[in-house]
Design a protein that fits this description.
Radius of gyration: 19 Å
Shape: globular
Structural class: alpha/beta
Number of helices: 10
Largest sheet: 10 strands, mixed
Strand order of the largest sheet: 1-14-13-12-11-10-9-2-5-6
Distance between the termini: 22 Å
Number of domains: 1
Number of strands: 14
Helix content: 25-40%
Length: about 325
Amino acid sequence: MSELSAIDPVRARELVSRFSRQSVLVAGDVMLDRFIVGRVTRISPEAPVPVVRFQSEHVRLGGAANVANNIAALGGRAVLVGAVGADAAGERLTEQLAAAGIAVDGLVQDPGRATTEKVRVVTERNQQVARIDYEHDSDCAGDVERALVDRIARYGREVKALLVSDYLKGAITRSVMEALLNASGERPPLLIDPKIPHLALYAGATLITPNHHEAEIATHIRIRTDDDARRAAHAFRSAAHSEAVLITRGEQGMWLSEGRIDGAIPAVAREVSDVTGAGDTVAATLALALAAGATLAEAAVLANHAAGIVVGKFGPATVTPGDLLASLGQR
C-alpha cells in the first residue's frame, strides 16, 4: 500500500502547459443548472416553509456540459455529445456552451424530451431551500440514439481521450457505449464518471471514477478505512472489468487502483463551500491530464488538487491552469 500525494513541480508545469493542445470527447447527459437566489426573513403562515424574497437568478452548465466547461477552462478543447430538448432550456444551454467557447455540433435535439434542468432555490448565504428537476430520463432511442452514435464515430477519431458523464438521464445507452469503445483503431483512454445501474455497460474502460457511496453499492463493502477502500477498489475493478478505478472519498481524498499502483491520495485541505459538480471537475482534469501524457497517478494527483479548488466555490465551478498550478505550489 502506498500513498500518492505529490507530483514534481517541473513535471506538473509541463503537463498543464500541454492541456491547450488536447481534445477530449465528452459524451453524456447535458444539463442546465438554474439558481434562484433570495433572502429568507420569515416562515410562511401557509406552511412551515421559508419565504424566499427574490433577489437574482443565474444559470450554469451542469452534468456533461459542466465537464466540457471544465475542460475548456483548463485550456483544452471539449467535443460534447449529448441530447437536448426542443425547448427554452435547450436554447439557453446551447447559448451558455457557445459563450464558453464549446462547440454544439455534437448535440442532438430530441423533440420528445425535456432538456434536463435543475432549478435550485438558495438563500443569499448559499443555503439550498429547494430543488426542482425538469427531466425525461428514459433511454434515447431510434433516430436520436443513432445520431449520438454517428457523432461519436465522427468526432472520436480526432480526440486524445474519451469521457463518459453518466447521470442516468438517457444519453448513455448500450449502443452509445459500444460506439465509444470502438471510437478509433488505436483507442485513446476511455474514462467513466459512472452510475451503478449501468456498470455492465462500462466493461473495457480505462478508468472508472465512482464516489465512495457508488463503490459501496457496487461492491457491498463499507468504506471507512484505507484498507476498506483498497478492497472495494479491487472488487469494483473486477465487477466493472476496467483497467483502473479511482474512488473519490470526499474529505478522505481518493483511492487509486490499477496494475502497478494501489494507494491513497490525501485530500487537499480546503474550506468546503459546495461539493456540487466536484465530480465533473475530477473527471475533466483526469481526461485532460491523460490526454497530455500523464500517468494515472499523475493525473489523479492533478485531479485531486482541482477538486480541492472547486469545493471552495458555490455551485458547478471550474478551475484554470493558474489555479491548478497555484494549488500544487502550495503543497
